[in-house]
Batch of 3 targets.
Target 1
Amino acid sequence: MDFIVSRNSGTAVVKTNIEKLNASNASGLKAELIILGRDSINNIVIDMALTKYCDSSGLSALLVANRMCKDTNGKFVLCGLMPNVQKLIEIAQLDKVLNITANQEEALANI
């Protein structure tokens, strides 16, 4: 299972259980997000503590989550970024767009 989703009163935590978030699995993350949206969950935390690499397809999935939450007046928080993923997000200047915290506890406190 690439993504582990836990729900608690209108908030979902999606844990990436993969080393690489790329074109081969980003569609799976998008599918999980669509299910959450369909179930009216608009506060989402994505915990990427186990993910060491992310490509443009992975970034696209993260932006889908951000847009979905924003469009429904919810909150999106990204947490647990490994240095390589953090650097990619900074290079793409998405650190100015996305709400990023160090860990899941901080992320949940921001929701």
Note: The domain at 3-106 is CATH 3.30.750.24 (Transcription Regulator spoIIAA).
Target 2
Amino acid sequence: MNFSLDPQGKIVVVTTNVEKLDASNAPELKSHFLQLNKIGSNFILLNLSNTKYCDSSGLSAVLIANRLCKDTNGKFALCGLQSNVQKMVEIAQLDKVLSISDSIEKGIDSLNE
């Protein structure tokens, strides 16, 4: 399984279990976000601690999740970014748009604010 979902109260922690978040698995991640949105889960924390690489397809999935949450008065956050993924997020200037935390605990706290 490429992604695991862990409901924690109103927040769902989605953890990537892939080393590379790219065109081969980003559609699956988008599908999870769409399903969560459909059932009313709009507080999502994406844990990328297992992911060492992310391409534009992966960033697109992240942006879709962010938009789905915001459009339904929810919140979206990222946590556990490894250095290469952090660099991609910064190059795309998404660090100015997205809420990013070091750990799952801090990410959950940011979503509860």
Note: The CA atoms of residues 64 and 71 lie 10 Å apart.
Target 3
Amino acid sequence: MTASFRIDSEGGQELERKLGRVVRAFEGLEPLMAGIGVYLEGSAQQRFQDQKGPDGRRWKPSQRALRDGGKTLIQSHLLEQSITSAATGRRVEVGTNRVYAGVHQFGFSGTVTVGAHTRTRRSSTLPGGLTYAVQSFERQMNMPARPFLGVSSEDETEIGLLIDEFLMDAFGATAPD
């Protein structure tokens, strides 16, 4: 999609300056995207404290939280603290590098192989005569989804305010009282 417009004015230097700021602002959206990313990081981290997803639904408590007390998904805080964002001039991504995050975000039901990638016991001998055995087993797993990444309706409102602020800065305007 392509859009174009033309404005002709006489002695409209202030208008030209404002339009110049808008053009520069839209060429460099990275600060806006970075701000949105920081906001969404905090929003996702808050979900661990609130124990609910972006849709507002409460997470099903984990067996550990029920058994030992405390909150679901925050025994060590590693997942919560791993949430980061990366911004460019066109997009922002919010996520985590924890490999198990997807299981918590989307849930999982099925069989998991724990241990070696084979189902049989395997022995090996190292130089010097040391012998070790590797054994695997399968475990049935039913992990409910506990989404922590996403955009809630509150997030949409806040992102809209960040965009408004960015545009006001681009135009050199101030916020209404």
Note: The chain has two domains: 14-106+146-171, 108-143.
